[in-house]
Amino acid sequence: xxxxxxAGARARNASRGRYRFREYHVTTVPDPLALPTxxxxxxxxxxxxxxxxxxxxxxxxxxxxxxxxxxxxxxxxLYEQTVRALVRAEPGAWQ
Length: 95
Known about the structure:
Elements: E1 24-30, E2 37-42, H1 60-74, E3 79-84, E4 87-94
Antiparallel strand pairs: 1-4, 2-3
């Protein structure tokens, strides 16, 4: 296997590299074509969380109905809610 043409060159010190980043502002805009998703996990419990999960739902009303049903069956009152939505990054002008 032939040697690299730079085999005799000194190794560059990677910590000496110099990089410059110009600042710019990025805004995020909800994607109008993507629907948000909602999910809840029951975190009621003293020694450990219940852990019951709603699964992925597509409206906050569906999520509220699931929480109401789980609360009615179990008496649990504490839930962690997650809302996911796609957003589009729109970079502004370079500063």
